[in-house]
Amino acid sequence: MTSSFSCLERYCGSRFSCSLSVIAIVLTTAFASGCGGGPSGKTLPGNTTVVVMASSTADDQLVQFPVMLKNLTLTNQSGNTVTLFSTPVSAEFIHLNGNVEPMATANIPQDTYTSATAEFGLTAPVCVGLQSRSTAFFINGAMNGPGTPSVTVNLPAPIEVTGTAMGLVLNLQVSQSAPFSGGCVPGSLPVAVSPVFNLTPVVIAAQPTNSTNGKAFGLEGAIASIAESGTGFTVTAPDGYYDGNPPTWQVSTNGSTVFQGISGASGLNTGTAVDMDVALQADGSLMATRVAVYNTDATNLSLSSGQVLTADASQSRLDGLGTQTVGGISEMDDIFGYGNATFQVSGQFTNLQNLPFVATFNAANMVSGQNVLVTSNAPPVNGALPLPLPLATMTLMPQTINGTVSETSTSGGFTTYTVTLAPYDLFAELAGQPGQPALTSPNTVLVYADSKTQMLNSSSVSVGGVFRFYGLVFNDNGMLTMDCAQVNDGVAE
Fold this sequence. Notes:
Oligomer: single chain
Low-confidence stretches: 1-44, 133-138
Helix content: under 10%
Structural class: mainly beta
CATH architecture of the largest domain: Beta Barrel
Number of domains: 3
CATH class of the largest domain: Mainly Beta
Number of helices: 4
Shape: globular
Mean pLDDT: 86
């Protein structure tokens, strides 16, 4: 409880210039309510809406890490438990490296919680490597060692649940969850997998700007229903490889929501694929700040997002890693034909014209390792999609790279970081395949950061440091360049 002297100072000032009657009232209130000292001083605590959000901390060793959890519970100081979710829910965690995605929402008692547990459902981490530097790639999704993986949920500090709403970030510690050494080659697998998470609180800002205060970027999915008012809709998240229980998001819009590819909310239809940024609200609901539609035709819509594995301009086809899928696409790697596709760049970034290089993405400069979202309207044939699947659109999407800074400089209002990638990064691993443009230095990315870049790193970005950079990666005449939106602490390589 807050001391009675502290309460007197709060109400009467440091010199206690109150009458005796006022002092009596203040002391009585202090003993009854703790003088507003927080949940620990309340005799009748209320409930708080808690939004559980998935995230990860990862290097570039793995390209997919879908995890399905059957439940998640919290335990308070007295040993009592509350359930955050009891219906299986899944997320693909690698594409969330440094970012967040809502998984579930619960209304729980205000309290201080000291531990958490979760029950394992399914997982299938994936690495990618070449069998031969001049031929095919090697993919292995069977990384699980023998036995049933356990799930560890660490609380770096007790979590105080208070207020109307707050967030909880379930952050997958990838290196601990799937200890991996060496390249992705036959003989290096299987790897024993036991997911390890850190669970930390998020205070929702009045105007969220990043993953630490309630903003989620690049949520992809298909619209399941639209509110009669026209100011909200429900989105089903894509399936990840082997997870099968994606979350559903109830999203609202307002006059500040930016619509891209359509004139407004009226341009949305059931089945439409969307890419959106959302902000947690004071009540725990989701408000869309940006909604992008890259293919307005929802007929027979299929969607796949992930990194390019092989890009062969001579045949207008590519193999892509289906990290997340909607519609009939179900395989981990899929063959796409892009001869008639419209090439685009994510609408999440508004500073492309300010970059000191020409930021383009097309069939001529696409390279393996870039993150893309592709859509198709091809109807199934005998119950299956045709291969190669003819694409309607191909959109360059943001991604996270983990690397060592070797040089810093400035260029046209941007701070530039020369980042050296690990040999197992897909840009370095898959470079030199036939049919795609040559990269002058496939293990190097020139990162451009401006005043709007979210600097979430705990130490300054300096030469020799390892950091994670999130942004759009372009091929600028053989040089990999990134328009960077966010910087996080790195992961040892």
